Amino acid sequence: NAGVTQTPKFRILKIGQSMTLQCTQDMNHNYMYWYRQDPGMGLKLIYYSVGAGITDKGEVPNGYNVSRSTTEDFPLRLELAAPSQTSVYFCASSYSSPGNTIYFGEGSWLTVV
Amino acid sequence: RKEVEQDPGPFNVPEGATVAFNCTYSNSASQSFFWYRQDCRKEPKLLMSVYSSGNEDGRFTAQLNRASQYISLLIRDSKLSDSATYLCVVISSGSARQLTFGSGTQLTVLP
Fold first, then answer.
1. CA A20, CA B17: separation in Å to the nearest integer?
2. How far is B66 from chain A (nearest CA, A)?
3. Which of its termini does chain A have fewer beta carbons within 10 Å around, N or C?
């Protein structure tokens, strides 16, 4: 059972570079999320989507973009990477409302130098 | 005041001990509550939901106190494998934006 798969697992970026974190889920969940987790902090919502073609900002969207062209995929784009974006990024999905169990990917460790 | 607050710990307890964590929330309109477990350098995973009447799952008991706006997690007969960070999650409405994670309480069970 694949669940939520995100790539890459580790990446080092230089300041100003751009990259895309890939996320795909095979559970036919309509809700998908991107969170970042800084050391000793809770998860902060970057963007979320309630279905294909629909995305919305979370708590910390600046410096990021997302798209949701299919139910399965929810890539996160970092434009002009900054050291403040050094973090662990988790993609997640849930069936219907967020009151249901949220399933997380294994995380992507990103360092911006 | 943070929306969701947890004692970061660490809580270091011997095997077999009983340990309890609290999580306070600021929004009195909060509707749903959960405990997630996160192992070191791993993704969070649902441990249990928290129901108004309290609920139990094996050695784990979750309680909700709406009047004082906190939820609790009690772990009995602690095992080494219980060592992890425990995150409380509070949902204020049906919107994904209103789902808030606490920063977590770190538990280490010692042999």
1. 45
2. 18
3. N
